[in-house]
Amino acid sequence: MKLGVCYYPEHWPEELWADDAARMAQLGISWVRIGEFAWSRIEPQAGRFDWDWLDRAVDTLASAGLKIVMCTPTATPPKWLVDRHPDMLAVDAQGRPRRFGSRRHYCFSSEAYRAECKRITEAVAGRYGRHPAVGAWQTDNEFGCHDTTISYSAHAAQRFRSWLSRRYQSVDALNRAWGAVFWSQEYRTFEEVDPPLLTVTEANPSHRLDYNRFASEEVASFNRLQVEIIRRLSPGRDVTHNFMGFYTEFDHFDVGRDLDVATWDSYPLGFLEQFWFSADEKQRYLRQGHPDISAFHHDLYRGVGRGRWWVMEQQPGPVNWARYNPAPLPGMVRAWTWEAFAHGAEVVSYFRWRQAPFAQEQMHAGLNRPDNVLDQGGVEAREVAAEIATLGSSGASRRGHVALVFSYEADWQFSIQPHAQGFRWLQLAFEMYAALRRLGLDVDILPPEADFSGHALVVAPSLPILDDQTLDALAASGAVVLFGPRTGSRTREGHIPQTLPPGPLQRRLPLRVVRVESIRPGAGPTVEHGGAEYGARLWREVLECDLPALAMFTEGGVAWTRSESWHYLATWPETALLDIVIATVAQEARLPLQRLEEGVRLRRLGDVQFAFNFAPEARRTPAPEDASYVLGGPELPVAGVAAWRVEAA
């Protein structure tokens, strides 16, 4: 358990650096991230490098005993570079270039920009790769932020054509895969294919799905280019990238395979405000964040990092980029930090050391105010550092009993053909995760190709494209499995299976989906279970099957069924019914359940059980009466954290 901070020496007078470094060390900071936006200072003109200032900054931090995460500065190409290669800019869905003047103004497919990234990465890694204070590297910054994963530039179009040629070998195969006979969309050569941009009405869904796949692979190969250089010039150092929250435009598991550690940027209040949560939830958790937002991403990125992960940017106070930007409740920065450690984080790094008084992020808080006085986030970081010293060893994060299957491709498929306004795969996955957490369960989030052995319960929110490898892995695990609606509803090409959905899942769940309908909010469907009536959301499937009905649509038809230990939902249950479904499959898997008070969550780390209170009222800590507390006690205040020793599993 280590603390870190993001620092920008180029933003501050050099006479502050030594004092900053000393104060970081005194606060309990171990790691400092630098350099991710500094290209214009490292190379102010083409081929003319200015290393002196960065050499001094590195030495100043090292002299204070701090370890450095050095970054490649490729998220912010300088103006001279854009002027040299104006076609390196990404092009948006309206056909407009994403211009210079902020950040992430490049296209992943630009060969010229890739060559420049290779050059600057070699320069920075060659300069600092073997410096004893440089202990880790971050590639670029927040791939895809500001909707920059998908570009429709001429470079992207040409690389897409090459990608299609490799994938399909012949244009006839492409035409079949895309069903291009529909609306006379057939192509004669790969060179005729454009990105799915500015079509009169919706573009071919198979075309769009392949463009998503292509764009995702472009991100992975762009990252890999830098990783390979860093490994060559800076051996023995961890390489990471800082991913974002609720972001699905590229496959993070694919990028993560080239990294040693996954990191992500945790802004609980900003995410609550910006995403789908209800007005009541946004009001109730205004200053704490939703109880499951951070945890969901902690568990996701632990999966992306194959067990190793950090928080690279932890919210320390109000942010500047959401619709509304409240300050966290006193104690929440501390609680978020401990929550990350409870989920297995090696490092929690705060953004940023000091609030900038200029430019786009001047309204974004840091650990220190602009006048260099420690702000509330800094006070709480210091408190955590002292608590880490007293807590001692707690052991490693253990494998959860439950796995949630996370598919970026499923999210793309739902986005391309939602069939109902607001039918979001990511929201469905999050709500199933939250239902598991309300029962006190620890969850691993894994890709569809994972090994699920050792998990007693596997929850697949929806896998519209379901292959034999995943089915075989699920069967081999022996787990109880729950599938959400629309599973097996598409082939790899994006077509409805000839055998009808759920396609290959029919091998284990003998049923067929013969019709689907989407229903506007407030109009149903409703579901009957155990003599009570419950709401469902947006979606209803009509099933042909002879399997037992665990719940029925009130107007007729099976809403929830099973075959042996595999379950299928033909709708999206609202919270009350979803809680029943999740509790039922968890009990069938013989998992120990602990129904928690609203706003309370648990997480086990080694031999320490943690509890967190996100409610705006105090709660009782859900611990045994004779619990041996290492943090907190039997009363769990607002923004409270408690931890107690438990017997090793």
List the helices and strands and how they pair.
Elements lengths: L1 E5 L10 H11 L1 E6 L4 H4 L9 H12 L3 E5 L7 H6 L26 H18 L5 E5 L15 H15 L2 H8 L26 H29 L4 E6 L8 H5 L4 E6 L1 H7 L4 H6 L8 H12 L4 E6 L17 H11 L4 E4 L25 H16 L10 E4 L2 H9 L8 H14 L4 E4 L10 E4 L7 H10 L2 E4 L27 E8 L7 E4 L2 E6 L1 E7 L3 E5 L4 E6 L2 E4 L2 E2 L1 H14 L11 E6 L2 E6 L5 E2 L8 E3 L3 E2 L4 E5 L4
Parallel strand pairs: 1-2, 1-8, 2-3, 3-4, 4-5, 5-6, 6-7, 7-8, 9-10, 9-11, 11-12, 12-19
Antiparallel strand pairs: 13-16, 14-15, 14-17, 15-20, 17-18, 18-19, 21-22, 22-26, 23-25, 24-26
Question: Could you characterize the architecture of this molecule?
Answer:
With 649 residues, the chain is of the alpha/beta class. Helix content is 32%, strand content 19%. The chain is built from 18 helices and 26 strands. The strands form five sheets. Strands 10-9-11-12-19-18-17-14-15-20 form a ten-stranded mixed beta sheet. Strand 1 (2-6), helix 1 (17-27) and strand 2 (29-34) form a beta-alpha-beta unit. The longest helix is centred in the middle third of the chain and has 29 residues, at 205-233. The mean pLDDT is 97.
- Strands, count: 26
Beta content = 15-25%
Rg over CA atoms: 25 Å
Kindly report how far apart the N and C termini lie. Answer: 21 Å
Uncertain runs are: none
Biggest sheet, spatial arrangement of strands = 10-9-11-12-19-18-17-14-15-20
What is the mean predicted local confidence, pLDDT?
97
Helical content band: 25-40%
- Going by helix content, strand content and strand pairing, the class is alpha/beta
Q: How many individual helices?
A: 18
Please give the largest β-sheet: 10 strands, mixed
* Global morphology: globular
